[in-house]
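Take a record:
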Amino acid sequence: MPVLINNGSITCPHCENIVDVKQQRKGATYTQNWETVPPRCMQIIQWWINSHPTQSLTKLQLLHSFSRYHPTASTGGFFARVSELLGLGIISASRETMEGEHRTRITPVYTLNQNRARSLINHGGKLN
């Protein structure tokens, strides 16, 4: 039976108990076995460091900005690359939060680890 996750919790449809939901926030975990960063991810890193190195942006803001320079980027493909960069620790994400009187959802924003990004660029995408 599907249930709605609300503010990191669900209400059990059978017993009405509120249960916290543990959500994975570390990105694509399969990237831990990579020795080099793939070209598509490197393209995003190079674009980001040249265009918005200090800004924290949502996924949609990143996609819209990236798409202006790379119009062939697909939403699913781009979001997958963001997940991979998150898994590699090249970017970090804030937590999604609820705030205000009306419990407005604040979506996560992503920040580039500039030192790690520059190191990857200087080493041709090779991971330590």
